[in-house]
Amino acid sequence: MKLSSRITGLTGGEPDGWDLFIRARKMIADGQKITELTIGEHDIRTHPDILEAMHASAAAGNTGYSLVPGSQSLRETIAARVQARTGIATTADNVLVTPGGQSALFATHSAACDPGDTALYCAPNYATYPGTIRGVSAIPKVIQTRPENDFQPQFSEIDAAATGAPGAKSLLVNSPNNPTGVVYSAETMDAIAAACLKHDLWLISDEVYDTQVWQGTHISPRTLPDMAERTLVIGSMSKSHAMTGSRIGWIVGPETAISRLIALAVNTNFGVAGFIQDAAEYALNRGAEFEQLIAAPFPRRREIARRILAGQNLMQTVPSGGSMYLMLDIRATGLTGNAFANALLETKKIAVMPGESYGLAAAGHIRIAMTVEDTAFEAAMIQIVDFAKGFAA
Ligand SMILES: Cc1ncc(COP(=O)(O)O)c(C=O)c1O
């Protein structure tokens, strides 16, 4: 039987970010000891107190169908958190609870785009973006941000892409950014908003790393003038609370959009398990201090990396301000990101992601996930520097 072109054409066309990851996992399965600095997964598990809240909820009988939009109290908790962090009036009616940020990416593009519409996104980008856009039968169009601009998108770049795709419906941005760690400046956010207003675009703002910021300030573009009515914000408990496996996140947007998105949820995933929602509410109510505890290892490890990278000039750190990643410009070694990452895996048994996995914009770079404990991270960074020195001119 023939499958739809939507599903057979979902992936492909872009470099496959997972090649190196799969290779490293195979080496591990074959018994080799590999230091994995690849995926965005904390080296801690979900906090026992959150698990206890989850268990208590399930044991109390909260195992049936849940309210599809999310429980009223969780939606209120998320709305209050968003309002407190951004200053923009937000109520439960502005919130839809989703099975993670990924499903929110799919839902928001469904809301913004009809089949055949163009959806813009900025690269370097989280690997699923183009596939998600194709999943709603829209056409992904990439905007390559540039290393010389510290990977901050420029008004002229967005404007040119939108002008070249008349009728484009949406722009997807991600700050703090995966893979670069860059936190978009106020100037960048203003440029993004101006381009959306000029070209009448929905702005889909992926803010799943919003608690992981140590330099600069995270600005949610929903707060900018005239943007609340055209912005759909994606949030997630995955990174902020080390709850990747629980699959819980949210969309915040205008009530009219949220009510339609609820209908989409009813007809697709039918909501998030009630005991997961209760655990998320418990976790959010632990407050900002708890979130800082979860985020704390990443600036600490970034500092370790900075210390080890000082005094060499084959690898430059992309000036990042957040997320759990470190991006290094390795062009001075003369290698591509792919060649560097594969040779590093072979010779030093360290797995990092080639920049090319995240779009051409990050060619000649590698992404290091700072997701092993400090001593192992430090040892790996020393090895990476040692490896790069082999390519000194
Ligand atoms: C930028 C970005 N957006 C969205 C997601 C999806 O996260 P989740 O579906 O776990 O909430 C990820 C996961 O790594 C990500 O890096």
Written overview of the protein:
By secondary structure, this protein is of the alpha/beta class. It folds into two domains: 5-45 and 294-389, Aspartate Aminotransferase, domain 1 (Alpha-Beta Complex); 64-287, Type I PLP-dependent aspartate aminotransferase-like (Major domain) (Aspartate Aminotransferase, domain 2), CATH 3.40.640. It is built from 15 helices and twelve strands. It has helices at residues 5-8, 19-29, 48-59, 72-86, 100-112, 129-135, 155-163, 186-199, 237-240, 255-266, 274-285, 288-295, 297-309, 337-348, 374-389; strands at residues 35-37, 95-98, 118-123, 139-144, 170-174, 202-206, 231-236, 249-252, 316-317, 325-329, 350-354, 365-369. The strands form two sheets. It has a seven-stranded mixed β-sheet with strand order 2-8-7-6-5-3-4, sandwiched between helices. A five-stranded mixed β-sheet has the order 1-11-12-10-9. The model has no long low-confidence stretch (mean pLDDT 96). Bound molecules: pyridoxal-5'-phosphate. Pyridoxal-5'-phosphate (PLP) is lined by residues 40, 100-102, 126, 174, 178, 206, 208, 236, 238, 244, 249. Pyridoxal-5'-phosphate is lined by residues 40, 100-102, 126, 174, 178, 206, 208, 236, 238, 244, 249.
